[in-house]
Amino acid sequence: MAACPDVPFPEEEPAEAQHVLECLSRAEGLRDCVTNEHEALVGMIAGTLCEALGFGFGESQIVMRAAQLHDIGKFALPSDMLHKPGRLSPEEWAVVKKHTEIGHGILSIEGSRFLDLAATLALCHHEHFDGSGYPQGLAGEAIPFEARIVAVADTYEALRANRAYKDGVGHEVALATILEGDDRSKPDQFDPKVLRALEDCAPIVMQRYDAGRRVLSGERDRARGSGEP
Questions:
Q1: CA nearest neighbour of 36 among 59, 58, 69
Q2: Contacts for 69 with CB less than 8 Å, ≥ 6 apart
Q3: Is the dihedral of CA 26, 28, 33, 34 positive or negative?
Q4: In the chain, where the domains are located
Q5: Rounded to an integer, what distance in angstroms lies between the CA atom of residue 46 and that of residue 156?
Q6: CB 211 within 8 A of CB 48
Q7: Which of 57, 72, 74, 86 has its CA 20 to 30 A from that of 34?
Q8: What is the fold, at CATH topology level, of the domain defined by 15-225?
């Protein structure tokens, strides 16, 4: 199993990385627009959290773009499993969890520091600060900091989104669930520094998320109207 490396942070995002990101997103969107929209929104939230944590504008943008590929491993999973209306069986859940390692394999290209970061986020975004996550059960600062940021962003978007198996919740409920916990999620799963950043920038997260969701919904409706996949 690949390790979660704490990769050197790219000083700048080359133009080629932007082109790669756009091509991969297009390919993924043709098969699964739900995951594609989820990734775009998670990237936006992750970038906002980076700003609240004191990252520079350029660094925040790089994390935002790299985070937009965090679920690319789901491209290899059965669509009916990803969108199953009911609870996954233990066997199905074991398959779904493999998307972290699959995504890491897809993005691991020698010589690209941007894709090194994207591969790390794909592999580590389900690791938990208390060690209860997957695929390796890493804990605390053994998890790369950018992956700890994406873990919070991913959970926020997953709570707010409508899915075949659940209705999404509003901003306040999502925020309370992350900060206070519920029967499925505990605050101990997240880096306390990132949770404080989420509290600090919560109004901005809500504003940007709602705006981003409207834009993506409009793009999806226009694509359907034009007969695109």
A1: 69
A2: 21, 24, 25, 39, 103, 107, 118, 121, 122
A3: negative
A4: 15-225
A5: 10
A6: no
A7: 57
A8: Hypothetical protein af1432 (1.10.3210)
To the nearest 5 percent, what fractions of the chain are helix, strand and coil?
Answer: 65, 0, 35
Beta strands of the chain (E only): which ranges?
none
Q: CA dihedral defined by 210, 53, 181, 144, rounded to 10 degrees?
A: 110
pLDDT in tens, the chain (229 residues): 444 444 455 555 556 566 666 666 656 555 555 567 888 999 999 999 999 999 999 999 999 999 999 999 988 898 888 888 888 999 999 999 999 999 999 999 887 888 899 999 999 999 999 999 999 999 999 999 999 999 999 999 999 998 878 899 999 999 999 999 998 889 999 999 999 999 999 999 999 999 998 888 776 666 555 555 5
Q: Beta-carbon neighbour count of residue 87 at 10 Å?
A: 8
Q: What are phi and psi of 163, to 5 degrees?
A: -130, 170
Those residues whose C-beta lies under 8 Å from the C-beta of residue 148, and which sit 6 or more positions away, are: 129, 190, 191, 194
Q: How far apart are CA 53 and CA 88, in angstroms?
A: 36
What does the alpha-carbon distance between residue 90 and residue 47 come to, in Å, rounded to a whole number? Answer: 33
Task: Identify whether the C-beta of residue 113 lies closer than 8 Å to the C-beta of residue 84.
Answer: no
CB 10 within 8 A of CB 113: yes
Q: Are 177 and 185 in contact (CB under 8 A)?
A: yes
Task: Name the token pair of 157.
Answer: 């978007």
